[in-house]
Design brief:
It is built from 2 helices and 7 strands, in the order H-E-E-E-E-E-E-E-H.
């Protein structure tokens, strides 16, 4: 009677084919910020440039889009490490910055990369939490 177990060579081939497919889809996911795909970006260095929250609750999103899921908030005056350059400017003229430890913040009305902006300086002096 013939065994119903799959051939080890067939399993290996199927595994390699699946890995190849996953690899190409990961490359596509990291270059596409639409459709709910979360881009894979490096975590900004803790001692790198900062972004300051200008409003009571600045939203941190899981991807660079105003419609993306909120994964956290920054309080007014809060500062967080960010990437040196924005990931994208789509839907955010000031740029969507990756922030530490994860997520994206739109620089503009809610947040700024200019730590010397008048509002940022007042918030730092007042230490509003």
């Amino acid at each position: 009677m013939k065994s119903s177990r799959p051939c080890p060579a067939a399993l290996l081939a199927a595994t390699l084919a699946a890995a190849g497919c996953a690899s190409s889809s990961n490359q596509q996911a990291s270059s596409d910020d639409e459709g709910g795909i979360i881009p894979q970006v490096p975590v900004p260095a803790a001692d790198g440039p900062k972004l300051v929250a200008l409003v009571h609750r600045t939203v941190v999103r899981d991807r660079p889009s105003a419609s993306a899921k909120a994964i956290g908030y920054l309080r007014a005056g809060g500062r967080v490490a960010r990437a040196a350059e924005p990931y994208s400017r789509k839907g955010c003229p000031g740029g969507w910055y990756p922030v530490r430890p994860r997520g994206f913040v739109c620089a503009g009305v809610e947040a700024s990369t200019d730590l010397d902006a008048p509002v940022a300086r007042v918030l730092a002096a007042e230490q509003i939490w």
